[in-house]
């Protein structure tokens, strides 16, 4: 089989005489708006908030300012049950910048009766490799949040989700 | 006023430029000059006659927000617009759509669509790709590979497709890539070799995911009068359309591509396609993560939902099957950059011109191309090409 260059090899290391490295160091600070501010305030208090559409009744967790189906502003806040269902998941076995030490599991989780999913980590499952993991985790697995002791109004105030003990 | 629109030229940068982006030595300007010149020569049209250009890329990879700067090499006059198109992995297809609409309207007669070697200039592509997700919520948990893995894993659960099925599809693409001088990966790999490659992100092994590639493509799109004037075998654009999902991936279905099904239903209705498997002779779909190709068979109506495994096991989409799919080697083997989304279209065009070299499917008259883009398929793009109008 054809050998491919290892992902860790830096582009500057190859054909260096043809490369002109430069660095683009830019800082940004996003305005998050009122709905996100309120959601993150809830997270600090270990509460999960969502918003409902006045027209179709859909619930959005995390909250969405506008129901994209109806194109109306959502107006009703609800605190939802701290219970989720896995829609899909993946375990990552390679290291990527800005993400945890592998292996770790990322899942799309439907929280309470939300119409949309929240992406988050799942932990608390012992597995040696993917074969063992797929025996233990499925579409439909019920999960609950594990809160961080120190919370600062961030999506990672939930450390991860883990399967509900039956 | 609406006129028929045809593709009369396709050009790529040099075969050697289709390589790991780290091996690439040519400047963006050099690659653009080669691809555009090859496309214009192929079309037998002078640069002077071009009256609109579409530059397609994903901005973050280019290290500047003046991404379209490379098209200066066209030597255009003052009155030629350069339009920048960025719809993630569908940017090339969107560029063809813009060109098609401009020319159909009568506004312009000759357009060049250019797909950039986007990744040339990044040191690491992943951190740039990661900016594609919502920063407050989703970016904390994913990079591009998870965006490919989440629907792939969900699809396995609902469809019964196996790792072996994915490896079969990948092996088909590697066999095809080995016939394509413009493929980055151009050696065959067996199912066993693919299943032996390291697991990156369940269920995606390294050999089931695209590499980060260099290489560029260009296409010349013209009005009906010019098309019949410059060549005997112009390829007509029967239908071309695009669709968008929400930016937030929380809205997605994580086990196939329902938005693509909606788009294909619409496109087929407009183009009078009743049975795509029967009516198309060749298709190119966007498969940077190989399970996508199977989800796309279903969303593009080649089979019912959940049934793609049978097409794979029966070889229906292989070279000698009823509908050969990705005979270029697909995004998996050819090029993973924005060139890739234009190449899906340019490869179908070459097939219909009968000029696809060793990858030619004999007698291809009608073909489909598709591309997928941005965070977890925010965009889909489709075109139907035909030798007759
Ligand atoms: Zn609504």
UniProtKB/TrEMBL annotation, chain A:
Give a single Pfam family match: zf-ChsH2
User: Which positions fall inside the ChsH2 rubredoxin-like zinc ribbon domain?
Assistant: 43-73
Please name the InterPro entries in this protein's record.
ChsH2_C, ChsH2_Znr, NA-bd_OB-fold, Thioester_dehydratase-like
Can you give the residue ranges of the ChsH2 C-terminal OB-fold domain? 77-147
**Highest taxon of the lineage:** Archaea
Q: Which SUPFAM superfamilies match?
A: Nucleic acid-binding proteins
> Which named protein is this?
Zn-ribbon domain-containing OB-fold protein
Q: Which organism is it from?
A: Natronosalvus hydrolyticus
Automatic annotation (TrEMBL), chain B:
**Keywords linked to the UniProt accession:** Isoprene biosynthesis
GO MF terms held by the record: acyltransferase activity, transferring groups other than amino-acyl groups
Q: Which domain of life is it from?
A: Archaea
Q: Does the entry feature the keyword Ubl conjugation, yes or no?
A: no
CDD domains assigned:
SCP-x_thiolase (cd00829)
Pfam family of this protein, just one? Thiolase_N
* Keyword check for rRNA-binding: no
Q: What is this protein called?
A: Thiolase family protein
Chain ranges of the Thiolase C-terminal domain: 264-386
Q: Which InterPro entries does the record cross-reference, listed alphabetically?
A: Thiolase (IPR002155), Thiolase-like (IPR016039), Thiolase_C_2 (IPR055140), Thiolase_N (IPR020616)
User: Residue ranges of the Thiolase N-terminal domain?
Assistant: 23-184
Q: Where are the transmembrane segments?
A: none
Q: Which GO terms describe its biological process?
A: isoprenoid biosynthetic process
């Amino acid at each position: 089989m054809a050998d491919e260059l290892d992902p860790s090899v830096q582009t500057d290391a190859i054909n260096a005489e043809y490369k002109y490295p430069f660095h683009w160091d830019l800082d940004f600070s996003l305005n998050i708006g009122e709905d996100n501010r309120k959601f993150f305030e809830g997270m600090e208090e270990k509460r999960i908030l969502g918003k409902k559409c006045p027209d179709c009744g859909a619930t959005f967790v995390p909250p969405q300012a506008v129901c994209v189906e109806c194109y109306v502003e959502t107006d009703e806040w609800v605190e939802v049950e701290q219970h989720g269902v896995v829609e899909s998941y993946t375990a990552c076995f390679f290291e990527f910048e800005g993400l945890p030490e592998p292996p770790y599991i990322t899942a799309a989780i439907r929280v309470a009766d939300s119409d949309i999913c929240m992406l988050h980590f799942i932990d608390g499952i012992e597995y040696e490799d993917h074969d063992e993991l797929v025996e233990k985790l499925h579409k439909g697995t019920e999960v609950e949040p594990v809160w961080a002791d120190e919370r600062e109004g961030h999506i990672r105030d939930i450390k991860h989700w883990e399967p509900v003990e039956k | 006023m609406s006129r028929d629109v045809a593709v009369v030229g396709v050009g790529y940068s040099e075969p050697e430029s289709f390589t790991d982006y780290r091996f690439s030595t040519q400047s963006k300007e050099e690659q653009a000059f080669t691809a555009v010149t090859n496309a214009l020569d192929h079309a037998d049209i002078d640069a002077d006659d071009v009256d609109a250009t579409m530059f397609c890329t994903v901005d973050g990879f280019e290290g500047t927000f003046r991404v379209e700067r490379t098209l200066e090499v066209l030597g255009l006059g003052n009155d030629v617009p350069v339009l920048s198109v960025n719809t993630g992995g569908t940017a090339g297809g969107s560029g063809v759509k813009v060109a098609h609409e401009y020319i159909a309207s009568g506004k312009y007669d000759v357009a060049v669509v250019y797909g950039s070697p986007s990744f040339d200039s990044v040191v690491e592509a992943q951190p740039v790709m990661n900016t594609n997700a919502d920063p407050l919520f989703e970016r904390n948990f994913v990079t591009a590979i998870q965006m490919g893995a989440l629907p792939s894993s969900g699809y396995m659960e609902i469809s019964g497709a196996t790792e072996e099925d994915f490896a079969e599809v990948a092996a088909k693409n590697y066999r095809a890539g080995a016939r394509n001088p413009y493929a980055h990966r151009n050696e065959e790999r067996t199912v066993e070799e693919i299943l032996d490659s390291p697991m990156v992100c369940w269920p995606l092994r390294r050999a089931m995911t695209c590499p980060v590639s260099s290489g560029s493509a260009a296409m010349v799109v013209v009005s009906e009068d010019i098309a019949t004037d410059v060549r005997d075998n112009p390829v007509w654009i029967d239908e071309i359309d695009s669709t968008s999902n929400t930016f937030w991936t929380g809205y997605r279905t994580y086990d196939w591509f329902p938005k693509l099904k909606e788009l294909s239903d619409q496109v087929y209705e407009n183009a009078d396609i009743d049975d795509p498997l029967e009516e198309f002779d060749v298709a190119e779909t966007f498969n940077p993560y190989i399970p996508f190709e199977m989800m796309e068979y279903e969303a593009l109506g080649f089979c019912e939902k959940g049934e793609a495994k049978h097409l794979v096991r029966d070889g229906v989409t292989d070279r000698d099957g009823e509908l050969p799919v990705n005979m270029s080697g697909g995004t998996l083997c050819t090029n993973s950059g924005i060139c890739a989304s234009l190449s899906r279209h340019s490869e179908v065009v070459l097939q219909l011109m009968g000029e696809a070299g060793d990858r030619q499917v004999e007698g291809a008259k009608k073909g489909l191309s598709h591309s997928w883009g941005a965070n977890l398929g925010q965009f889909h793009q489709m075109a139907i090409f035909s030798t007759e109008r």
